[in-house]
Design brief:
30% of the residues lie in helices and 20% in strands. It is built from 17 helices and 25 strands.
């Protein structure tokens, strides 16, 4: 007889047979009641609610915490219709563990039963997955079956989603790298935020981080994009309330932060701008406002930070002494907004502070203190799902769960927080421009999945050597290389630039400029036939093409048929290697995810 049946036969609430093991953080089956405690001990009611199965415990509602906050959530351009769902049961706290560690509710028992059958590796992976979605997966810990359905409905109802307007990939995939755009707006939405940000702001992209997770899920790079970076904002087709699509014209030479809010631009326009800037397509976005910072830091009971000096900033209202502090709520927000009292007093100094804070938050989320507490996980899930606005492709708790599971294996020691390399704009000291060479190196490393951390890079070394074997073998003489050159997304004039360099600098005289490609490519590629492999190797050596850029066909080519070289957005100029560097540029700013850095 299974545990559920056996419990009912003996008059025992099945939920009372599952006990939280403090050593593993998992619920385990205990068929014998603890000494001195009756099987029908007091706790949350196990009576059936309408539509539930007998014995299922439905989390009870607490009036104050569960009600939607009076100040509302982030107001994001493009947001229509608010949260999902209509009337529904709203459990506002998890089924609380009873004294001695018993889980209240059959849902918790059911979830624990499934976890008990998994391997240790599976348990570890699931715990990590909870971290990566900021707590929205906490419902896995507090219920399945009927009670779990109510929990699912509850968290799903918290989520606000807006259209991605076709700007991204259409959703992440298991077989490629993942790019998630995290946007913090400066809109003063919500109670207590009147003194923050620009009073008249329409909600610009004040803080923007592109979170890139490698294809093999061994490492991640969190790339901060300065809000004052001069950028090209492309045309942005944007869905309207009436179902029509409005094309918001692009602009050149504007601050990056105007990609959101300005001219009614939505987060999908920021996605397009990031792709334009980096050459990387974005899978998803998440948007947070000032309230999100306060509620999420409250949910984890504070984030640990370190100061190398006293800070008293009259702009952000942060007043802390030198040393270590645990910040949450208003104080955490003040820390993240501080700029004039740290570094050079610029927005770049504020970005460094934010990266130090986020690396500490990751460590806090991964701590056993958080992961083994159903109450903390519930609070975190409640805060995360209410505070964030996401794109419509992950506007469902199940989709967020899938995303979390994909990101589960990344270790903090293999996470790098860095910033797009920039320099002061000589024409306007209030803005910055790309340090072109260093920035392109960073973008190339991310596109090619090159880790910024040594540990993950070592794990990839063997695979890269095997891949590079494509480039080994006999090479044709430059005069014997035949190639047609197309522009498939590179800057204007690139095909002619490459042709001139090939013919006059490399001796590839049998080359032709074919102008624009029939369709754009994501990055530069060389298509060749098996009997042209020696020509492909020679051209790859000349141009610094990576093995992944070589695309062999199935059939041999005719004696005078040319190869096809299509230049993509990664092409800067002829003579600049197109393969990603294996090491980050010197002197770029970075913070490692597993290390504490003190603000200066």
């Amino acid at each position: 007889m299974d545990a559920q049946g056996r419990g009912r036969d003996e008059g025992i609430d099945p939920a009372d047979q599952w006990v939280l093991n403090p050593d593993t953080g998992d619920y385990e089956l205990r068929l014998t009641p603890l000494p001195g405690r009756a099987a029908d001990s007091s706790g949350p009611s196990a009576s059936a609610s309408p539509g539930s199965r007998a014995g299922a415990s439905v989390p009870r509602r607490r009036d104050a915490p569960g009600a939607p906050p009076s100040d509302g959530r982030a107001s994001v351009p493009g947001q229509r219709g608010g949260r999902r769902g209509g009337a529904r049961p709203e459990p506002d706290s998890p089924p609380e563990p009873r004294p001695g560690g018993r889980a209240a509710g059959r849902g918790a028992a059911s979830a624990a039963g499934r976890r008990r059958t998994k391997s240790k590796k599976s348990k570890k992976s699931k715990k990590k997955a909870l971290v990566w979605t900021g707590g929205v997966l906490a419902f896995l810990l507090v219920g399945t079956a009927t009670a779990g359905y109510l929990v699912y409905q509850h968290f799903n109802g918290n989520i606000t989603a807006v259209s991605s307007d076709g700007a991204g990939t259409g959703g992440f995939s298991k077989d490629r790298a993942i790019n998630v755009l995290v946007i913090g707006t400066d809109k003063r939405t919500g109670k207590g935020n009147e003194g923050y940000g620009d009073k008249e702001s329409v909600g610009h992209a004040d803080t923007t981080i592109l979170f890139h997770v490698s294809k093999d899920r061994t490492n991640a790079t969190a790339l901060s994009i300065p809000r004052d970076l001069i950028a090209t904002i492309p045309d942005c087709p944007t869905a309207q309330d009436d179902g029509s699509t409005k094309n918001i014209p692009g602009t050149r030479g504007d601050r990056f932060n105007t990609s959101l809010g300005q001219f009614d631009r939505t987060p999908s326009c920021t996605m397009r701008t990031v792709t334009e800037l980096t050459g990387m397509e974005v899978d998803h976005f998440m948007v947070a406002d000032f309230n999100a910072v306060k509620t999420l830091t409250d949910a984890v009971e504070g984030v640990d930070v370190c100061l190398a000096k006293d800070i008293n900033d009259d702009k952000s209202h942060l007043n802390l002494e030198k040393g270590e502090h645990t910040l949450q709520g208003e104080e955490a927000l003040a820390f993240l907004r501080t700029r004039y009292s740290v570094g050079f007093g610029s927005d770049l100094s504020r970005i460094e502070l934010q990266q130090q804070f986020l690396s500490s938050l990751v460590r806090k989320l991964k701590s056993n203190d958080t992961l083994t507490s159903p109450t903390k996980m519930w609070t975190l899930a409640e805060a995360a799902t209410k505070a964030l606005t996401v794109d419509d492709k992950i506007g469902d708790i199940n989709e967020l769960r899938k995303l979390g599971m994909e990101l589960a294996s990344v270790d903090p020691k293999n996470i790098t927080f860095t910033t797009v390399p920039v320099a002061d704009n000589p024409e306007d000291k209030a803005t910055v421009v790309l340090q072109e060479k260093k920035a392109q190196q960073v973008f190339s490393m991310m596109r090619e999945d090159v880790s910024f951390t040594e540990v993950a890079a070592q794990k990839k070394a063997a695979a890269k050597e095997k891949d590079a074997a494509k480039l080994k073998g006999e090479m044709a003489a430059p005069a014997d290389v035949r190639v047609d050159v197309y522009n498939g997304g590179a800057p204007g004039g690139s095909a002619q630039n490459a042709l001139y360099w090939l013919q006059n600098g490399q001796g590839v005289l049998k080359s032709t400029n074919k102008s624009n490609a029939p369709k754009p490519v994501k990055k530069t590629q060389l298509v060749y036939a098996p009997n042209q492999a020696d020509q492909a190797r020679r051209l790859a050596e000349m141009m610094g093409l990576s093995a992944s850029a070589l695309k062999p066909t199935a059939k041999d080519a005719g004696g005078t048929d040319p190869m096809v070289l299509t230049l993509g957005p990664d092409f800067v100029e002829a003579g600049t290697p197109l393969s990603a560097p294996q090491k980050a540029p010197d002197e770029i700013q970075r913070v490692e995810g597993d290390k504490q850095v003190c603000a200066k």
